[in-house]
Each structure stands twice: as structure tokens, then as C-alpha cells.
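Dear support,

I submitted the protein below through the web form. The confirmation email said the job was done, but the results page showed an empty box. After a refresh the structure appeared. I'm attaching both so you can tell me whether what I see now is the final result or a partial one.
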Amino acid sequence: MRRLSAITIAFFAICWSMRGQERVVVAFWNTENLYDTIPSPFYDDSDYTPGGANGWNTERYRTKTANLARVLDELDADIVGLAEVENEGVVRDLVTSLETDYNYIHLTSGDSRGIDLALLYKGDRFFPDEAATRLVGSGTGREFLHVEGELIGGLPGAASGGASSGASGGLFDGASSEAFGGLPGEHIHLIVCHMASNLNSDQYRRRNMSALRRVLENLLAQDPAANIIVMGDMNGTPGEKVVRKTLGDLRSPWGFMYAPHYEQHLRGRGSYSYRGRWLLYDWMMVSPSIARPNPENLTHPNPENLPRSNPENHRPTAPASRRLKLDGAGIYAREYLTEPVSPGPASPRKPWRTFYGGDYLGGYSDHFPVWISLSN
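What the results page shows now:
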């Protein structure tokens, strides 16, 4: 049996408290190239075919899907954003492999590799507005997936079941939370991202972040108390220069947006490993209405204590008549998600990926999932 050192155990110890009916968990995971085995006429996915460089056959595809399903079932989040899914077919195969009852949203993007974004959700926790589900320009071919809807699961009086509970089948057009416990739902914006790689020119990342900033500014201009959650593989840490220049300081809930995983970044924890170094490439942001502790007023109680830089990011906003608040954030790191290695201090742990170069490893993903929890 593989064992972790005490230091490594401490590294991977992420607090996951008991789930109660007043909590809603939102997660994100980059699935690492979830392709089917069928050649596409629209882009080059030849490496992921039976005769391709990766020998991507039915057995390997099913192993990959089963591996992803195991993690998602154990994570048991109410909403999950996914990156690097090839098409609706692979999302459907994944959902049908799960014990947890999820609905899904998938829209085909313009990505040159043919990889898309998707959203899984429990039907008794989130009711998406089909008309408000769309792809949003990101400045590159990888659009953002923007889904609006009513988040009611986990609020007091709402229906709550076990890990596999959830409504099955389609959208509930015109559904009201009155039918599920008598309390009005919270309108929420979910934005799923897959930013350009750091291997690309900085201009692509600047375009991505600037486009995201415009989306967020538009939403907050319409409603300063809007509930917004941004999630994704940002392909960079929340403290990197391009993020700070476009989105401001994400360390404080009194900023333009707040990144609840920032503290883990400062502690050297990460969702991705590069040359033996942990990097927080997957993270989330929440809007002031969720991040700030006072539900009645989004204005900082001591404005003179605000950072001098980027003062526009701390402008007073309208009072918020909401009940959502952030009460936890973490990286879903488990021993079985790390590559098997020989014991010894010279063997750094990293996510157990499906391929390394051209070598098939048969793992899960090269990224760990990340999550936040909300309560009222």
C-alpha cells in the first residue's frame, strides 16, 4: 500500500465538513482531454483515435470515464464545471456512468483542439434559465460558458436528500422554489472558463482576463448585488501579474472580486504540478455579495483602510438583499489521485494523469478538482 509522509499528508489535508441541508457545494475540474474514440471532421483529434499516437481505444476511454466518475461521485458537489470535454457525447457518457444524479449543460465552442466546457448540476439544487445559457467571447477561441439560474438547494426548507438525490430529466421551465420548500431561490451567475496556456503569448492571457473583466463589470453594473461565481482552469495563479493588472487584488473580499483559494496559493498548495512545483492553476472567484461578511451593506466599514492601489475596485455598492455567503473553499486532493511513485524524498507527488507525453499512465487527470461551499 502506498503511504504519504506526514508533510505530504498535511499538504493534502483539505477540510471537508459534514454536508448539511444549508450548504451548497460548487466545484470545478479540468478532466484532461476527455475525447471519444471517433475521428472528428471539424478538427484534428487523430491522436485520440484507436489508430492514433495515443492508441485511444474503447477500453482506455471507458477507464478514463470510470475514473472521472469515481471522483465526481465522491466529491458529490451540487454544481460542477468541467473543462476539456470533447463534445456532448462524452459528457452524456460521463453522466450516465455516475451514481450521483446530474443533469448537464454543454455548448460547442470554437476551440481549435475541439475541447469544450460543460456544467453538471443536481436538478433539485439548481434550475438553469435555458434562455440565459450562452457562450461569451473570451478574446480567443475558448469562449466562457455563462449559465444563469435559481440556486435553491441547501437553503432552509428546501428539499434535501442523500448523496445521489436529484431531479431527473430536463429543465424545470417556470419552476418555483415554492414547490420545493417555500423559500425563494437565489439568482446566480455561473461562469466557467478555460484560459489560454502560459505557453502562449501573454497577449492571449491578457485578452482572456480583459474579456472576463468586461463580463463581470457588465453584470455588476446591472445589479451591484449580483451573485456571481467564476470557476475554471485559469492556467495561472490568482496572484500572477496579468490577473492583478486586469482583475485587481483578489485576496480581499472588499475587492472587485474575491478568490477564496488565494490563501492556499500563498501556502504553496496547488491543483497542478509543474517540474516538482505545486501551482494553483484552478481556482474560483465570487462577487462581493457572496464574499463580503455584512449581508445588509456591501460598502467597506472602514474605507480608509482599503489598499491604495486600484481604488476603483473598492467602490461602494448597493445593499444586498441576499442570503448566500461563502463558508469554505478547498482543493480536492486524495492519495489515489496522485501518481504511484517509489518511496523517498526525491519522488515528488503530482496528479495521476492519463498520459505523460506519449506514455499511457491510465490515471485520472493532470489537475485536481477545486470547490467552494455556500450557506445562508
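Response: this is the final, complete result; the empty box was a page-load delay. Residues 177 and 190 are 19 Å apart (CA to CA).
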